[in-house]
Amino acid sequence: MAPVFRDRCFYVFNGGCVLSLLFFALAISHLGLFVYSLRQQGLGFPIWFLRCLLLALAFDNLVIALGPLLIAWPGYVVLSTLRFWVHALLLPVLLVFVACILCEKLKSERVRNWLPRIAWLLAGLAIAFGYIFDLASLELVVADFYPRLVASDAQPPFATIAVNLVVVISGIWLWRKAQWPWLFLGALQIFLLNGLSAGREWGFCVGNIAELLFVFSLWLTMNTQLKPKDIRDRLQPLKAF
């Protein structure tokens, strides 16, 4: 184990250091947004989901950053498997987050009531699809370009792509309805960057940077398009006029 660890340390500080530092920086960025989000209250489900997403992405980047050092450690298989599970179980719930944003702009009470339920249903279907076609047969192998564990069956993440497309369409609607383009632009850039870099050995670097930009667009959208409950309560008397 000691020689292997020594070799990994040599890799990190002689060429692999740049990529490791990149993923450490991404992890710290996600944690920074998470810590800042703890100051925000009254935003209900969206803020709790965003906190979970930030922690999941910080964990994902941290596991990748530690790959060159821990690739030979048996526990690294557990950490890598966990990051795949967290990604597959949490990302579809983004549909519910987006539904909560859109409900703030809808006038129909019936649609406002049903949209989150439909979002939960679609999220459940996406999770089930991801489990059946990805997680149930997940096998990890060591990647060549940068030491980390990846899925042996590198098929397109169809559930993730479907969720991303729904968010892009929702972003277009929000742009037209509220003159807020950043949800659309955030979803579009991660969709395009992941698509253009798919199959490239460095594509995971581009994808994780795009994730940070995307989650920042979600954070901005939540803070500009949602009002805390205490603010909405204070606005109620003004509506009578």
Describe the structure.
- It is globular, with a radius of gyration of 20 Å.
- The longest helix is centred in the middle third of the chain and has 27 residues, at 109-135.
- A hairpin with a 6-residue loop joins strand 1 and strand 2.
- The protein has eleven helices and two strands; from the N terminus they run H-H-H-H-H-H-H-E-E-H-H-H-H.
- The model is unreliable at 230-241 (pLDDT under 50).
- The protein has helices at 2-12, 17-37, 45-65, 67-70, 75-90, 94-103, 109-135, 158-178, 182-197, 203-225, 229-239; strands at residues 140-142, 149-151.
Bin the helical content: over 70%
Please describe the biggest sheet, giving its number of strands, its sense, and whether it closes into a barrel: 2 strands, antiparallel
Which secondary-structure class do the elements indicate?
A: mainly alpha
Unreliable segments (pLDDT under 50, ≥5 consecutive)? 230-241
Overall, the morphology is globular
User: Regarding quaternary structure, how should these chains be classified?
Assistant: single chain
Give the termini distance in whole angstroms: 73 Å
Beta-strand residue fraction: under 5%
Provide the gyration radius in Å: 20 Å
Please state the average pLDDT score: 88
Could you spell the SSE succession in H and E letters?
A: HHHHHHHEEHHHH
What is the count of helical runs?
A: 11
Q: Let me know the number of strands.
A: 2
Observed structural traits:
241 residues; mainly alpha; two-stranded antiparallel ribbon; 11 helices; 2% strand; globular; disordered C terminus
